[in-house]
Amino acid sequence: MKQRSYLALEGIGVTFATRNGPFVALQNIDLNVERGELVALIGHSGCGKSTLLNVIAGLTKASTGVIFLDGQVVDAPGPDRAVVFQDHSLLPWLTVAENVALAVDKVFAATLNRAARRDLVMHNLELVHMAGNAAKRPAELSGGMKQRVGIARAIAVKPRLLLMDEPFGALDALTRANLQDMVMELQASQGSTVVMITHDVDEAVLLADRVVMMTNGPAATIGEDLAVKLARPRHRLEIADTSGYVGARTDVLRFLYERFSHPGEKAA
Amino acid sequence: MASAVLKLVETPVGTLPENVVAPQPLRLALPVAAPVAVVPRSALQLWLDARAAAILPPLIMLVVLLGVWQALCSAPDARFPSPIKVWTESHDVIVHPLKGVSFDAGKIKVADGADVGILVHIATSLERVAIGYSLAAVAGIALGVLIGSSLFAFRALDPLFQVLRTVPPLAWLPLSLAAFQQANPATVFLIFITAIWPIILNTAVGVQTIPAAYRNVAKVLALSRPQYFFKIMLPASVPYMFTGLRIGVGMSWLAIVAAEMVQGGTGIGFFIWDSYNSSLLTDTIVALVYIGLVGFALDRIVAFVGRRIAREG
Ligand SMILES: Nc1ncnc2c1ncn2[C@@H]1O[C@H](COP(=O)(O)OP(=O)(O)O)[C@@H](O)[C@H]1O
Ligand SMILES: [Mg+2]
């Protein structure tokens, strides 16, 4: 029998019951992610990227198919698959440290004592350069800072899989570049396995080992799976005009704007 | 206020480099010391200015109102007492609000019966409100959380609550008197049944509208039910709860006066009824002022507590 990948999606389909009858959002999705890989999911808005991520997270039930993580079936949410939400989803009544502590205290309640958990919170805030803002509330932070905390909360529980849903979509270009560099550093130092949704072609090619492109919905599936063969560590300026980068970028653009142009433009 | 302090502190800091070049201790010390002496005074001045700007308009309004009232009611055959008449006729009520209360070796003793000062009546009313309202707060939040988090409970109970909440407080009084036999618990029950509906319904809305984002955080962390309740549900719905609690305290105060007027004995409602029966209209006017001020204070206290809790988390 063939060895399964670290994360294996087999025949995943999602059908929503809507007022106008069943709506097939995803169909027949097979996806394999190896340990330590960073996979970027890209596709037009509304194609079903968030739905797929939510299925992996266990927040949405798959109508068909199975998901294996490290050989085990997963079908309910759990902290082993941490999620960085697009809207950061920090709890506004808790401070930065308390937001991270909520996750750490839950996951390490039995294995670490209070002081060790506190250290873990601060360590992870240091990793995202937010230790100096530990006592602030989310309302006092900029969008980029909130997302740093969101990332700290996710990685602090040492998840087996890190899921990110357009984590930098709402940020300005400079902040986004900063955070992209930070994610690359974190992934290199922690060896995390990451599935990240993006609609930014440059972000996908810069960060990912593989760019998985989704066809347009309804009944979206995986259209192409492109390996980005660029050496790490990657520096955005150094790789910007290498043939590997430009080639990968062109491939993704071609997929998005030639083969699967935006549904709205196609109809016109 | 904060920005004013900041500005004044900034000025000496801005001039500091110039002084550093000439390292004479006296010149260095002077520009630093001088503003320190100025800061508190001008900050106080600013504070006083702000206070005056806030207090002056209502004060003028009050004087105008009293003046017009006096002018309208100063005719000898006026049916309605003028402010000056209120002052002279109800002088006793106004200057002896604590009649019947004696301080004895640090202990406060209150005379029994109805012939006590107006503040004693108010205290009696407040005590009833405190008991009835506290019970309503506890039961109301519990029921609100129940119907907010269980669709079955919502469908079962919401129609009942919607009907019952429209029943005027006084309509409960006969049932309440029949059930409790005594005036005091009957009034407390009346407060309870008046205040509970807005608390239930607002808490339920708060729980129902917890953003999906927070629920997803809880799911990903696999929080247990009690953890979800204390860490997500309660803090997320606190603002709604306090909206209900604030409406509830206002309604309690409305209901207590009506209830005491009907059921008699003690309390500020009884005081009003008694003054009407004794044709002491000026006493009624004094009581109205007190009731208004106490109701206002209750509303502000609940609002303040709500803001504090929402901020603390
Ligand atoms: N709970 C739901 N019920 C019905 N339809 C849904 C639901 N969630 C998502 N959809 C539909 O599924 C499609 C994919 O949505 P989504 O995964 O959010 O897209 P993306 O993240 O790629 O922009 C959309 O057409 C959306 O309207
Ligand atoms: Mg999405």
Give a nutshell description of this structure.
The complex is a heterodimer of chains A (268) and B (313). With 268 residues, chain A is α/β, with parallel strands linked by helices. Chain A contains 9 helices and 10 strands.
What does this structure look like?
- The complex is a heterodimer of chains A (268) and B (313).
- Chain A is of the alpha/beta class.
- Chain A has two domains: 1-80 and 161-268, Rossmann fold (3-Layer(aba) Sandwich), CATH 3.40.50; 89-158, no CATH class.
- Chain A has helices spanning 49-57, 96-107, 114-127, 143-156, 173-190, 201-207, 236-239, 243-259, 263-267; strands spanning 7-18, 21-33, 38-42, 64-69, 72-73, 81-84, 161-165, 194-198, 210-214, 222-227.
- The longest helix of chain A has 18 residues, at 173-190.
- Chain A is globular, with a radius of gyration of 19 Å.
- With 313 residues, chain B is mostly helical.
- Chain B folds into two domains: 55-89, no CATH class; 107-312, MetI-like fold, CATH 1.10.3720.10.
- Chain B has a two-stranded antiparallel sheet with strand order 1-2.
- In chain B, a hairpin with a 2-residue loop joins strand 1 and strand 2 (107-110).
- In chain B, helix 7 (173-180) packs across helix 8.
- Chain B starts with a helix and ends with a helix.
- Chain A binds chain B through residues 57-59, 77-79, 81-83, 85, 87, 89, 91, 93-94, 98, 102-103, 106-107, 157, and chain B through 213-214, 216-217, 219-223, 227, 231-232, 235-236, 238, 310, 313.
- Adenosine-5'-diphosphate binds next to strand 1, strand 2 and helix 1 of chain A.
Q: Output the CATH homologous superfamily of the largest domain in chain B.
A: MetI-like
Strand content of chain B: under 5%
Question: Which two chains form the greatest contact, residue counts included?
Answer: A-B, 21 and 17 residues
The total number of structural domains of chain A is 2
Bound molecules: adenosine-5'-diphosphate, magnesium ion
Rg of chain A is: 19 Å
Strand order of the largest sheet of chain A: 6-7-8-3-9-10
| End-to-end gap of chain A | 48 Å
Sheet with most strands of chain A: 6 strands, mixed
